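OP here, attaching both records as promised.
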Amino acid sequence: MINTISWEEAKNVGIKGFIRKNLPVVITDIDESLPLMTWSLEKAISHYGSVQLRVLKGTSQYFSYSDKVERKVVTMSLAEFYDKGILNPGLDGYFYTLGRSPIDQFSGFSDYMVLPNSLSKFVYGYLRRPEENIWISPKGTRTALHFDAVENLNLQIQGSKDFYLFPPRIRNMSPYPWYSQAAYVSKVDPRNSHDATDFPSDLGVHVELQQGQMLYLPYGWWHQVDTTGDRNLNANFWWFPRTKLMTHFNQTLRGAAVLINRMGQHPHKRAQKLKK
């Protein structure tokens, strides 16, 4: 079972205990006192429909991070992405927006990327350089099982997503080699039993993240994400922790290797060579 706390508890007490123990928690009943919750995908299109985005294009809704066709990056306006990617998925391929670029291009939107002090003190602490992202995806989109070598607060503004979480570990997770750009990705789809012979499925935690909920996804936790809502707008905050870089050394090492192997490429540009 996933831990949950209310929005009022999160604002007044915070989630320090969960962060310290590196345990996920869902914050529920978030209202419009959080500025991001005043937005919707339709509102974003009305404000930023003409903005050009870098978009990942694939041949299916499962973005495995390993298929060469998934490395195709195209440019289109947000309005065009809404038409092709959200309203008519599959008609001309499948599309997935690349996280950070909309934040940089949506003039004024960063003013809404604010958190109450009980949460922001972790994200924007001393010597941290957090990254703010927004994500837009149609129903049926699934990302491969992977981990991020950062802490993550993930807010569902509109729609819903299913998260399948597994605690930090490398053994039996079947990751790509540490020297590839996908060293943080598992070759296993845990939802296909034939693909997970030695996989520790019993350690998994299922989270149904609904509109108005926020997931604290701890450092190094593996996660596979399925978009279940018809129209989905999601925002997240990534930041490096102060104390977990060594306590979860394997994740830290692989994360560093990925950054080196990418040689400055955009985080969503896939490896040129992925060895199975």
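Record two, same layout:
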Amino acid sequence: EEEVVSRLVLRALAEACRVQTDLPPGLLDSESLEVHDAPPPAYRPDPLQSLLARVETGHSGAGSGYVVVRPDGNMSEGGQVQGAILSGSFNPFHHGHEELARAVSDIAGAGVTFELSVVNVDKAPLEESEVRRRLSQFQGRWSVVLTMAPTFQLKGRLFPGCTFAIGWDTAVRLVHPRYYGGSA
């Protein structure tokens, strides 16, 4: 059977490369070969890699889109994001983040999506391996939206109508004079 499979694979490769072959399939007299053509699956680039490629080429900001990562790990570019958004670096994701999400959900009466920007106003953009590591903390529990929006002004443009929730550390940084030309 392995020889038959090997011969059939070689014949298929030769045919795909438009190379003529007279390699017999090696079937028994009682066996027959049926060939069915099917279109190749559509190529779908990895949404995270597409987002990071836009960061590398300098196409960041509100108009460049976002990636929604569902609790099952499936990713899609764009899509509906509603309710409350809890932004952070989540390095690491901890109990305080979960409790804040629960409180926000109770107060807003809506679901919470975590937001992780791969671009930060104070740090270098996150590498793919680091983004995937941080995402793994949410798997099976929460949805995450990945953006290239380092500021809340850009986040607000991406998600109009959403309520943004922030932790204490982000609140302190958000009002720091250095982000406003040194002006209090």
